[in-house]
Amino acid sequence: MTDLAKATAILNVLADGRRPLTLTELTFRTNLPRSTVHRVIRSLEEQFLVVHASDCPGYALGPGALKFGLNGHLMLVTANRPLAVSLSHELREHVGLAVFSGREMIMIDEVSPPGRPFELHHRLGRTADLHATATGRVLAARLSDDQMSRLLPHPLKRFTGRTVVDPDQLLADHANVRASGVAICLEEHDAGIGAAATCIPGETGVLLSIVVVLPVGRLLAKRESVIEALRRINPAVDAIRALRQLEARAAQCRTAERKPVQSSLTIHQRETTARPSRTKPQVAPASQ
Description:
Layout: H1 3-16, H2 23-30, H3 34-46, E1 50-52, E2 59-61, H4 63-91, E3 94-101, E4 104-111, E5 127-129, H5 134-140, H6 145-151, H7 167-180, E6 183-186, E7 193-201, E8 207-215, H8 216-221, H9 223-233, H10 239-258, H11 264-274
Antiparallel strand pairs: 1-2, 3-4, 3-8, 4-5, 6-7, 7-8
Helix pairs in contact: 1-3, 4-9, 7-10, 9-10
């Protein structure tokens, strides 16, 4: 591994962290020798890419690294916000823009239509797992199966009862995404929420994902207009395949809903029946 690769690994770990990380934590998360981490950290400090936290032990990204991030974010948002605004106003739905962020995706911009500014939970600037979001799936589908297998975490995290956590099923789903150019998620990250996303090459050359996020019922009702709007943005979208993909996923959800599920109440009733009764036997009142 080159020095550049080692420095990149450390910077990625710091970027994914939610607090400063110590040398021990960096050593564990990068799988690099502690002496190597210490040497690279010293070089990064000299360039202000990393700083030693003043209020707690550990290191954090410095102003040199943040400069790259802020400038990149500004260029991406400035170049692509008009497209997101236009799509949001056309469909009267929530629209977001996302890019790769290490092993996750990050929402860099979002637009809500008039009258629906607080309808959905906002995740601007927050990362999310690739396998459980439409934005992440459509970005990951641009990778080979081997690259995707190495990129995804093991095991895959389950967010709802409909999250796909079987790697083989996920690879099959990504084959459909590649064929249609659209990724569909129905309640796989958040209950009641659906999304449809496609990729667009941003004006800066960075591959972007643009996503329409709305309640599942509205997505199913407006599926043709949503897919057609995404096709106009990305001419490579196969609208017929995308609609079939959406309808097949909706059918899978309906099938899952019809399957008998052992409820916690049923389990409790069985356990109660199996346990010997603790109720005190009733005693006949004494005759008066």
